[in-house]
Amino acid sequence: MTVLALISVLAAGCGSMSNRADAKLAEPAKMKQDEGYVVISTGTNYVDQFGVGVFLTIAPAQAQYRQDELALLAVSSQVLKSDFSDHFGLLHAVKLKAGAYQYYQANLDVRRYAISVPNARFQVVAGQVTYLGEFFYTMSLKTRDRREMRDKEQRDMTLLQQKNPALAALPRIKNIAQYSGYVLKDEAPVEQALPVE
């Protein structure tokens, strides 16, 4: 009964919650000298009606899996309104101190247990926007799920200009980071590996 009540609440709230990392909420005027922004869009071809959703975790480059999480960005969600009309997707902006970071996929469905999680590393530069591209997650019932980083700079920067002109005006670096190692493999953190196919 509790599960049904929870599903009803989530369904009723469909598209009614806001994205805490929405680019329109960024305040570049309050940025400290050692801070910069990461801008990344996320998207998917399918949103599970009852699923908890797929997320991207941003953490320091040397952090272990699910530790020192700095941001959790929705990839698929029943309770957030999409920024794009052709697929579910969101434009995120995260303020971070200059330095080295990683992102990796996190599925909050407790029925799934991660044993091998690839990650991608990137740098944040003080006073600038680092554009990471679009993380697109393809869910498939016939083949393995796929994840890829797409260069959607023109589309995303046009949307950023609409949502937050002050953030769009900052100097920008493009770094379409690809998976290059693992944050978790066989239940233990490992060193960076060769690029993942």
How large is the count of helical segments? 3
Helix content percent band: 10-25%
Taken from the alpha-carbon principal axes, the silhouette is: globular
Overall strand count: 10
Mean pLDDT: 82
Care to describe what's here?
There is one protein chain. This protein has 3 helices and 10 strands. By secondary structure, it is mostly beta strands. The longest helix is centred in the first third of the chain and has 11 residues, at about 1-10. Residues about 1-15 and about 190-195 have low confidence and may be disordered.
State the main characteristics.
197 residues, mainly beta, disordered N terminus, disordered C terminus
Describe the structure in brief:
The chain contains 3 helices and 10 strands; from the N terminus they run H-E-E-E-E-E-E-E-E-H-H-E-E. With 197 residues, the chain is mainly β.
Secondary structure: elements and pairs:
Elements: H1 2-12, E1 35-44, E2 54-60, E3 71-76, E4 88-97, E5 99-107, E6 116-124, E7 129-138, E8 146-150, H2 153-163, H3 165-168, E9 172-174, E10 181-185
